[in-house]
Every structure is written in C-alpha cells, then in structure tokens.
C-alpha cells in the first residue's frame, strides 16, 4: 500500500496483528522491502511483532527522484578519495526523516527499529533526530562511516559499480549477492535466481542506487555524534562480511556508549536462514531493554 509522507508516496507492507509491537525494518543500499526474507518476517510476526517494511524514496515502488538528475557517482568517488566535501541529491538524514514521517502517518508514536547495512546508517540518524520514535534499536552489518575504515573487497567494489545491460542483469546480481553472502550458508542457486528475477521484475532503479551511494559517502564519519545516543543498542556484525568488513561493526559498537555487540563468525552481508534465530534474538533483546519485556523461548 502507498502511504503519503510529506511530498512522497512510500510503498509499505505491514504484517502481523494490529495490536502487535510495531517493528520498523529499514533496508539497505538499493534494495527493496521485498529483500527482507519472508520467513524471517513471519518468525517475527509469530513473536508478536507488527512488522513494517517499506521502500525508501527513489527505490522500488516509492516515489522516484529522477528530477534530481543523473547522479555523478565517479565525481563523488574521487572527491571522497581526496577528502573533499560532497553534495548529495538527498542525505541519509532525509531518509531518516522519511522513516519518522512514516511512523507518524501510520499513527505509531514509537517502534522497535531494525536497520541493516545502509539502513543501519539511516537508523543512526533516526535515533539522533527523532529519538522519541524509537523504543529498541538494532543495527545489523552497518558502520559509523569514515574513510579510515576498510573498504569492500576489490571484487565487490567492481560489481557494485558495474552497470550491466538488460541481458546480463540477472546474472550480474546473482554474482553480486553470491559474492557478498555468507560463505558458510550459501543460498541454493535456483532460489537466488528466483529472488533476483522477482525483485528486478518489481522495480529496477540503478540511478537511485547511485544517489544512495553518494548520500553514504557525503555523510562522513558519524562518530562525532554517535556518542550522544544514550540508549541500549544491539549491534550485530559478521566476521565473514566482505562488503562492510567486521572492523565497521566493531567501530560502530565502540562509538555507542551502550552498545551490546554480537559478532557472528559465519555471517557475511546477507540474512541466511541458518542465522535467523540470532537475528530474532537480537530484536528480542532490544525489545526487552526498552520495555522490560521477557525474552521468549
């Protein structure tokens, strides 16, 4: 369904009982709400959560931002390399305001929040700009930002920057998701191909992904204000992550005064079914710390 947030129409899916504990799930770079595994969503619903997924502005079925013009990704890359200031078509803070606006439009005063990868960076801004909108907070496979942290592996960076033709698109994204995924928990080839095909059929906006990449680069090092987030925050990262190496998760946890850090040795940069219990447990820990709710077994 579409939800009006300011001048935007955000595509939203809500699962679970109306009286359930609201859980806002913020997706990462270039990915749609359908990238959250349905099985994981259903496990959270079974725990009593009202799961709210949405497409960021410019992504999926939400309002496109093509009026901002073609993103100058190469220029932004070199400016970042030399430490020069960047102008982003929109900021991560704007995406955080979208999330707060969505909760307001749904008449939800505050929610449990999960942000993954870039979505975790958006969630950091949400916690800083709209702290009253967050009960418990989970940051998965994310980063505090900053050029001092290790970059993705070279193969990953090449795949991220490549723009294949339509004939090669499915194979390209299968290769990308295989490269960033958890080596110990590979997704069967036919399942991965089906996921890619379904998402590409739903929407494909490469310029939007580039605009998000510029927004991430322009955001810089968030450690200068992350220390002001005085709340328990679950930080979860994998040692097998080739996109945001584990140093990002460790740095994020150090920057947050009340971080509760969990490191998973077999996790890459995805949400493998074998590790869903650990993700659900992290949501439960955040919920418990925010409300005193007992963890379910």
From TrEMBL:
This is Pimeloyl-ACP methyl ester carboxylesterase. One of its GO terms (molecular function) is triacylglycerol lipase activity. Residues 22-270 form the AB hydrolase-1 domain. The lineage of its organism: Bacteria, Pseudomonadati, Pseudomonadota, Betaproteobacteria, Burkholderiales. Pfam families: Abhydrolase_1 (PF00561). GO terms for biological process: glycerolipid catabolic process.
């Amino acid at each position: 369904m579409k939800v009006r947030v300011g001048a935007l129409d955000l595509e939203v899916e809500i699962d679970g009982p109306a009286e359930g504990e609201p859980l806002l799930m913020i997706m990462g770079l270039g990915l749609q709400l359908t990238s959250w595994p349905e099985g994981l969503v259903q496990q959270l619903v079974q725990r009593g959560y009202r799961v709210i997924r949405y497409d960021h502005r410019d992504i999926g079925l939400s309002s496109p931002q093509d009026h901002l013009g073609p993103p100058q990704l190469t220029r932004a890359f070199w400016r970042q390399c030399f430490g020069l200031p960047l102008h982003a078509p929109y900021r991560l803070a704007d995406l955080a305001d979208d999330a707060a606006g969505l909760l307001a439009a749904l008449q939800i005063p505050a929610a449990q929040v999960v942000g993954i990868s870039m979505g975790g960076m958006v969630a950091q801004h949400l916690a800083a700009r709209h702290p009253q909108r967050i009960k418990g907070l989970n940051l998965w496979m994310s980063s505090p930002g900053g050029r001092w942290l290790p970059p993705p592996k070279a193969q990953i960076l090449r795949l991220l920057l490549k723009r294949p033709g339509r004939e090669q698109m499915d194979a390209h994204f299968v290769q990308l998701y295989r490269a960033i995924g958890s080596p110990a928990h590979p997704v069967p080839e036919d399942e991965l191909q089906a996921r890619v095909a379904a998402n590409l059929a739903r929407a494909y906006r490469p310029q939007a992904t580039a605009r998000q990449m510029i927004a991430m680069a322009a955001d810089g090092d968030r450690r200068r204000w992350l220390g002001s987030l005085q709340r328990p925050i679950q930080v979860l990262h994998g040692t097998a992550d080739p996109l945001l190496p584990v140093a990002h998760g460790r740095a994020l946890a150090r920057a947050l005064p009340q971080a509760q850090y969990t490191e998973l040795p077999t996790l890459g940069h995805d949400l493998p079914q074998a590790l869903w219990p650990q993700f659900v447990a992290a949501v439960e820990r955040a919920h418990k710390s925010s409300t005193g709710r007992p963890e379910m077994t």
